[in-house]
Design a protein that fits this description.
Layout lengths: L3 H24 L2 E17 L5 E12 L6 E11 L2 H9 L4 E9 L11 E7 L20
Parallel strand pairs: 3-5
Antiparallel strand pairs: 1-2, 1-4, 2-3, 4-5
């Protein structure tokens, strides 16, 4: 027969393992990652105790859900934990920029206010091609 001490010991160990797994998945596990491109709307350092870089990117595009294609914009809110990445974003503000991000399921005060943490800036090549019939958008004529 199991003693009361063994039951309490195993129960405590299981609870600690489950709690450690939850903390890892919530705050350390990278849920998704990707790249967003757009124009920086604002970028600032903020916080009471932990000063973190917070920003918002405006991504423009076409909404083609109906027959009248309209221009729409999406906001991408992000945080930056690395000072070198923040400096690079700051120097490229006012131009088109691509940001590589990682999404965590939870936020930590020293990492930022957003689940999306930017870890890399990707240079945008200015590849403007001359307009031809092949690369024109099929927009309705008004």
């Amino acid at each position: 027969m199991a003693t009361k001490g063994k039951i309490i010991g195993w129960t405590t160990a299981i609870i600690l393992i489950v709690l450690a797994g939850f903390i890892y998945i919530k705050f350390c596990f990278v849920y998704s990652e990707g790249i967003n491109e757009g124009d920086i709307n604002y970028f600032q350092k903020e916080g009471f105790i932990f000063k973190t870089y917070e920003g918002k990117m405006i991504q423009t595009g076409y909404n083609s859900k109906n027959s009248n294609a309209t221009i729409q914009s999406n906001e991408f809110k992000f945080s930056v934990a690395d000072d070198a990445v923040a400096e690079e974003i700051d120097t490229r503000s006012g131009r088109q920029i691509k940001l590589h991000w990682k999404r965590y399921l939870g936020t930590l005060p020293w990492r930022g206010n957003s689940q999306f943490i930017v870890d890399k800036v990707i240079p945008v090549e200015n590849t403007s091609k001359p307009q031809t019939e092949d690369n024109l958008l099929d927009l309705p004529v008004q």
